[in-house]
Design a protein that fits this description.
The chain has 273 residues and is an alpha+beta fold. It has two domains: 10-44 and 222-255; 50-220, Jelly Rolls, CATH 2.60.120. The chain is 36% helix and 34% strand. Strands 1, 2, 3, 4, 5, 6, 7, 8, 9, 10 and 11 form an eleven-stranded mixed β-sheet that branches. Helix 1 (6-44) crosses helix 4 (233-272). The longest helix is centred in the last third of the chain and has 40 residues, at 233-272. The radius of gyration is 29 Å and the shape is elongated. The two termini are 39 Å apart.
Length: 273
């Protein structure tokens, strides 16, 4: 009885080829594409192109329904390394590059606690301003945002929930206000101070900020593409890595095909001899 093993061997051969190429793509080409694009991105946009400043690193002053955050700006020359902010919650000056314009983004996450004892929740206005103290306190930007405040007489949504993690999740889902704004002000190199004011003009209450609240200062480039890459860095990394991955894969395929053709041609000549 004879068995034809040609087809199983062919299938096993093709499966081994596919597995080999797949492993090579995952283990070699994909990490190489990530590393190459990361090197390209950091050369095009240095790490100090954006500076994140938590509001915890500002000098804060609460007065009635108004909370102010003030901080000075220090100019650092290009030949010196830009010092980073220590995440210790203490007041620290903001270090920026000299002769460089910046765009200001803001992210706020906060709870509003109202001293009113009527109802379960109340809508109010949040308004904040970015002000230059070194320029006669000129107002750069103002924005009014409705927020939800929790009153003293509100029903406790945490009752009956004894798990600490779940209680925090319920609190965040019910009462956390979020606000994210981009390009709200231009920060010039001559600016010496910056002030952020958060007001509740129509409410008798206070604001409790999350540690994740802060401002992002981004270098303003002449090329719009670089500004977009700095703002949408996650999307840029995904697209850039995909482009590098496709390019490396194309080079790999062309190289393999050329090597195979050359080997076949040389092997054929040896067979004829």
């Amino acid at each position: 009885m004879k068995f034809n093993l040609t087809r199983p061997f062919q299938i096993a051969q093709w499966v081994s080829y596919i597995l080999g190429v797949g492993i090579l793509q995952i283990v070699v080409i994909l990490p190489l594409a990530v590393l190459l694009f990361h090197d390209f991105y950091t050369r095009l946009l240095p790490s100090d192109s954006s500076v994140w400043v938590p509001l915890d690193n500002f000098n804060s002053n609460a007065s009635g329904l108004n909370t102010r955050f003030k901080q000075g700006i220090v100019c650092v020359s290009p030949d010196k390394q830009l010092p980073g902010l220590k995440p210790n919650g203490l007041s620290q000056p903001i270090a920026l590059r000299c002769h460089t314009n910046y765009k200001l983004d803001m992210k706020l996450e906060f709870y509003c606690h109202s001293l009113d004892a009527i109802g379960n929740s109340k809508g109010t206005d949040l308004q904040y301003a970015v002000v230059s103290l070194s320029d006669d306190s000129n107002l750069f930007y103002r924005y009014r945002q409705p927020v939800i405040c929790r009153n003293q007489g509100a029903t406790n949504v945490l009752e009956g929930n004894n798990h600490a993690k779940s209680r925090m999740e319920v609190l965040r889902n019910e009462w956390l206000n979020s606000l994210s704004l981009e390009d709200i002000a231009d920060i010039s190199p001559q600016l010496e101070n910056i002030e952020i004011s958060i007001d509740l003009p129509n409410s008798n209450g206070e604001i409790l900020l999350e540690p994740t609240s802060g401002i992002l200062l981004r270098r303003s480039f002449e090329q719009g593409l670089r500004n977009w890459m700095l703002r949408r860095w996650r999307t840029t990394y995904i697209i850039g890595t995909a482009v590098f991955y496709i390019s490396l894969s194309f080079i790999f395929v062309i190289t393999c095909m050329a090597t195979f053709l050359i080997f076949t041609k040389v092997y054929g000549k040896h067979q004829k001899q």
